[in-house]
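[Q] Does anyone have a clean structure-token version of this?
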Amino acid sequence: MSHIRVKKVGTRKDLKNFIRFPWKVYRDDPNWVPPLIRDVKEKLDIKKNPFFEHADRELFLAYKGDEITGRIVGIIDRNHNAFHNEKVVFYGMYESLNEVDTASALLGAVAAWGKERGMDTLRGTVSLSLNDECAFLVEGFDSPPAVMMPYNPRYYLELMEKNGQVKAKDLYAFLMTRDHATAEKVRLIVEKIKTMTTVTCRPINLKNWEEEAEKIKFVYNNAWEKNWGFVPWTENEMKHMVKSLKSLADPDLVVLAEDKGRPVGFCFGLPNYNEVLAKMNGRLFPFGFLKFLLGRKKIKGMRMLVFGILKEYRAAGISYLLAAEVEKQGIQKGFEWAELSWALEDNDAVNKFAASLGGKVYKKYRFYEKKIA
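[A] Here you go.
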């Protein structure tokens, strides 16, 4: 009989323990980047996060005696299940000590919670959806994660597999440097494409931030609809994202492709703020905000986190125009490297495109799943 006790988070103290637990797991790991505690609280707040307008969640803590040994959140996204015709309960924000019993108890708690609500598949990890940090790191433990990408101990993979979890899908992250060997080839491709299309690319205008965000939403919801795990953004989720990213986004790195004024594609780049967050220990105050303001000027990398191109324009090479513009802006700002992530392992078109830009797979991530008995 397991000696692990699982408890639902029900008090402010429980929530504090849930949020702070990762500091116990990663205290000796130099590659872990502590999240901002404020942001985690807001993400989990069912009143502030519009994700919960179409999703339910339950937070769990695992105890051995009086010691907390793990945490997990169960998530049922009604929009996901309706869009994909599935009955999935997701597990997310998984963290634990290296104990099979703890993992078993936490996964079992989410499975039981989901089964009570008619779900038949357990899948994870997500925090809280595929639009957030998601999947377990399986390769690339030798460096910190890029902004809004996950990180975890290597032993999580063994814990999942010992509990009957099997691979659902792998994701790739590509690393690109300024002096990649394909630079001249890409330049020639871009010049040729410009002579063959009426599509033009430009950085977004922050003065019309909400209008520009609507264009991005239009492309995103139409371009990604066939992707594994994709769920369209709702109006309120888009507004929330706009509000969250407005102070962080560099408008020069968010590029729109337009055909005679109609949005047909975009690339969303973001400075790698993890280089700054790593020094803030999860807190903005009293000194974290100062570290952020000073540190953001010294960031060396960026992440190309979302590409979207309307189906009818994918054969026209628009992706090269977008990537070239973001790369040009990044080089002008002094960035030394970029991560293009994430891409589905079986999305051959995206993976070949990333490789043609000089990208090399340097991190891999995995979704696990298990049928609920």
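[Q] Thanks! Anything notable?
[A] The chain has 13 helices and 14 strands.
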